[in-house]
Fold this sequence. Notes:
mainly alpha, two-stranded parallel sheet, 4 helices
Amino acid sequence: MTDLTLATLLSSRICHDLISPVSAVNNGLEILADEQDAEMKTMAMNLIRSSAASASAKLQFMRICFGVAGSMAENIPLDDAKELAHALTKGSAVTLDWRAGDVMLDKEAVKLLLNFILIGFEALPRGGTLHVGAR
């Protein structure tokens, strides 16, 4: 696989993961613009909030998971990875069982762990428990 092919696949993956929450934000804004019912407006705002939070969580996760992260320190606390993983799985049927502790790991090891978390998350489309550990 060439570098260009890998970059293309990663870009496609990011776009695929973001289209749903970004479209939901857009739909919520359209409802707000046309709707007079207060209850529907509240539902639209809730849709916008949850979708924006989902898009943000996915972007933050992928920024570390796939990005260069050149400005980051050489070692990263696993608490940072834990927060990213919890944000990624929030609102899904996947429960995160974090057993990795709160140690510092090399940033490349953290990136690898996040990639494994993403694979595990995607492997549970109907939900389940994703056990995460590191030594």
